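hi! just following up on the protien thing from before. the input was this:
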Amino acid sequence: MYTGITTDVERRFEEHESGDKKGSKYLRGKAPLTLVMKKKIGDRSMALKIEAKVKKLPKTKKELLVGGKIKIREIKGEINSAEGNKTSGN
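and the predicted 3d structure came back as:
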């Protein structure tokens, strides 16, 4: 399950699906692709942090995320908590 960030989901998906050099090497030759989830985060910094955390999740947890059993706000909360602990010296 591929995870990435972009400012233009439709353009980026087309790049991946077409096998374009701008698309992910991981996805080349894996067409047809299916977009199963997209979320607007708003803040690039937070989007990068969420992307990194989601990429580290096991496939089963990613499936729960796509299925709505885990919410992006929960992941964002974990990130905010971890950052709060770093700044408070914990």
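The chain has one domain: 9-87.
The CA atoms of residues 13 and 56 lie 21 Å apart.
cheers
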